[in-house]
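Following up on my earlier message about magnesium ion. Here are the inputs again, as you asked, copied directly from the submission form:
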Amino acid sequence: MGLLSQGSPLSWEETKRHADHVRRHGILQFLHIYHAVKDRHKDVLKWGDEVEYMLVSFDHENKKVQLVLSGEEVLETLQEKGERTNPNHPTLWRPEYGSYMIEGTPGQPYGGTMSEFNTVEDNMRKRRKEATSLLEENQAVCTITSFPRLGCPGFTLPEYKPNPVEGGASKSLFFPDEAINKHPRFSTLTRNIRHRRGEKVVINVPIFKDKNTPSPFIEAFPEDDEAARASKPDHIYMDAMGFGMGNCCLQVTFQACSISEARYLYDQLATICPIVMALSAASPFYRGYVSDIDCRWGVISASVDDRTREERGLEPLKNNNYRISKSRYDSIDSYLSECGEKYNDINLTIDKEIYEQLLQEGIDHLLAQHVAHLFIRDPLTLFEEKIHLDDANESDHFENIQSTNWQTMRFKPPPPNSDIGWRVEFRPMEVQLTDFENSAYVVFVVLLTRVILSYKLDFLIPLSKVDENMKVAQKRDAVLQGMFYFRKDICKGGNAVVDGCGKAQNSSELPPEEYTLMSIDTIINGKEGVFPGLIPILNSYLENMEVDVDTRCSILNYLKLIKKRASGELMTVAKWMREFIANHPDYKQDSVITDEMNYSLILKCNQIANELCECPELLGSSFRKVKYSGSKPDSSN
Ligand code: GLU
Ligand code: MG
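Thanks, got it. Here's what our run produced:
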């Protein structure tokens, strides 16, 4: 989850003293990059996915599953046996926030040919197999977005008590610091976010009210002032970064051919974020309770919210410069392409000096305000050895701020002196149980970018509407119940990337009929007379493409999954998990997930992921047969 520097981390007070230095040099570093590569074009499509994994241990005798705090050792071995031994190794492994997490990507980015889509799932299987091979027999790597009993007593192996004392990183009542990755970046982030904010982070997730759930549902925390004040009735209260960043997701990064293509894709995909997030919903349970949300987004957002009371608007501005309307982890606040300009209707807080400096350096308004907005944030971590840098050849200060703006989309300038082009990262998706599903979501998104570019599609709506969609997307069963603002006429024609889209307008002048509320089924599958549907558009694109039979078959299976999830014919992971718990013989309709229920759920998830049992409600029944009855052998056998 961002830049990993080695060295001695500074405290918040020390980091704060260097904040202006980091920002000033971060901007100089950005300018060096920008001037060096702003005219780069003709980069080819390259792309890659990132899957985050949890390590779990099953205690079959006591029917208990725990998160294993061995991520650092497992990662070390994976890297040693993999990339360090063979630069062409097919997988790459990186640390993640939890000491029970690892992150895997393909060893090399995928290229632009259609047949690459047929290698994604295979690569994901390799990753799962590779990581699994290092674990003990009763352990597994799971692709679950949120661990249902995260923060419950004894949820880690080895077990640790939380340490809500001064000096701890989280000071959490529930989440022990030992569950944080041992690389100093992660505990420093945790501690500095808390110090900057001036109190522990506060996460309140609405509880799902079942027949026997106490109403009001109230947990008392008499021993902890902060918790007593912050926890809300009818909510599951959490108080640590780990409750958010300790969740897993599925991300995709693309290299665009030029900066303007990257800006165009950034904008277009921003509107798709809430839609795909709802379609990928996989996190209904928190701290041992059934919640009323299906997606992790708001939880992570609150878990890293370092804004002070002044910045949050709770006190008059005295020591801080701005009111800031969102957490660092949130949806994007401005479009970057010329076509997006007229839809930029969110009040954007920017660092005015930085904005002026960027304009003076020849950067246009939209890009300048984007960067000046990211740079209202303070650096959260800084390493003593990394304060004075060579701005022409390093970008750590830029990356420091950039990579702790965890937004739905990320616009990524090339690293200095590299042959990497301008990239865009798509970040909202929840990770799915199986490699098949994860491949399906990834392929869907990548294909969508191809279609957006080939057909010059335009999904833009006012950004405030995208924000409203983000809120709807996280609600329970949003995929079937939610209504989302979406553009009606997406085929505007004209060469949007090259020509821009004419003069900016004030959003209040927009004809209101450009967008309307649609269900996900309508957006994805289309509805006669209302909207053509993304899947039908992808299908017609595929029909016109040269694709080998095997790849076509895989892609069609992936799209079928997305289609059926959107129509409700198949369940989202969140819905399936809810039903699993609701039907568990131990469940008392009181919204409580016991150790034993958690054990059976995660065991089942692991069996599904390893194809030891079928799960037609989630995956359908025909997909796998179609895929694996062909001549191509399943490489995991
Ligand atoms: N795990 C985080 C999430 O679920 C993302 C961390 C990262 O940026 O890699 O969104
Ligand atoms: Mg990550």
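One observation from looking it over: The chain is about 35% helix and 10% strand. Hope that helps, and feel free to reply on this thread.
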